[in-house]
Amino acid sequence: MTTRTLPRFLAAAALAASLGSALAQTVAADGVVRVKSAYPVDETIARLKADIAAKGIRFFAEIDQTQLAQGAGISLHRSTLLEFGNPPLGTQFITARAEAGLDWPVRLLVTQDERGDVWAVYTDFNWIAQRHGITNRAEQFKTASGVIASITGAVADPR
């Protein structure tokens, strides 16, 4: 993220944090958040990537897990892992506890289940904080939670 995109990200983060409760997702006991998409896999990925870019967030990788499985002779429903993040925010978690680097950059899985439903799946940031025993970055985790809720809100099925 450059100094030119930082203000855009911070504005998006502030908006996302304020919308956090409106975009709240259900968190499973294992910290996994599943957001049902209103779109097919390819459109879901395109919309997520566009929203990430619009927020000025750095995009690192798109990993087509289905293609990797096919290369190994294994059948797998559509599954694509997106990795992205904001180094000025994300590295604050790593400075609080080096092992938090296991969860950064952000990983967002787009997957299709056996019924054809498409899901955007990620690990809840509060769960990550608890996992790593990070207690001194509450405001940063709140910001990150709002941003991921906003990103997945771009594809969420309103039903």
Low-confidence blocks of residues: 5-24
- Which fold does the CATH topology refer to? TATA-Binding Protein
SSE string, helices as H and strands as E: HEHEHEHEEHH
Strand order of the largest sheet: 1-5-4-3-2
Helix content: 40-55%
Total helices: the number is 6
Distance between the termini: 35 Å
- What is the percentage of strand-forming residues? 15-25%
So what's the CATH class? Alpha Beta
The CATH homologous superfamily name equals: TT1751-like domain
Structural class: alpha+beta
Give the overall silhouette. Answer: globular
Number of strands: 5
On the 0 to 100 scale, the average pLDDT is: 87
Tell me what the CATH architecture is: 2-Layer Sandwich
Total discrete domains: 1
Task: Give the tags.
alpha+beta; TATA-Binding Protein; 6 helices; 159 residues; 5 strands
Verbal overview:
With 159 residues, the chain is of the alpha+beta class. It has one domain (6-153): TT1751-like domain (TATA-Binding Protein), CATH 3.30.310.70. Helices cover 43% and strands 20% of the residues. The protein contains six helices and five strands; from the N terminus they run αβαβαβαββαα. Strands 1-5-4-3-2 form a five-stranded antiparallel beta sheet. β4 and β5 (118-123) form a beta hairpin. α1 (6-19) crosses α6. The chain is globular. The chain starts with 5 loop residues before the first helix and ends in a 6-residue tail after the last helix.
